[in-house]
Amino acid sequence: KTPGEIAVSILAQVIAAGRSESRVAAGGSDARGVHDSHALESEGHEPTATDPVCGMTVVGEASPTAEFAGRTFRFCCDACHEAFIESPETYAVPA
Question: What is the model's pTM?
Fold first, then answer.
């Protein structure tokens, strides 16, 4: 919520993206670092999702959502949600 917290969050996303890309090069998970929400919940963590527009990790369930092609997508903010609504086929990658 504070500028410092936002800066730390952005830096964490940059680091996570770099690590995800190196995993893909080694044959691991995709570059967006998609997490298994059910596994995280069973470990006592809040469920997470990856915003399909900006790639940011969305934590918790109090975020904008949209349905497309039988899937539910979650977004970090209203701007990403609106961008997705305008052109979902641009952002929705096959499951």
Answer: 0.53
Strand partners, 50: 57
pLDDT category of residue 81 using cuts at 50, 70 and 90: very high
For the chain, give the percent of residues with pLDDT over 90: 38
For tokens 């890309």, the residue is 21
Q: DSSP per residue over 26-55, as a string? A: TT-S-TT----HHHHHHTTPPPEEE-TTT-
First to last CA, the chain: 32
| CA 56 – CA 42 distance, rounded (Å) | 22
Nearest to 49 by CA among 34, 38, 69, 66: 34
DSSP string covering 52-91, please?
Answer: TTT-PEEESS-S-EEEETTEEEE-SSHHHHHHHHH-HHHH
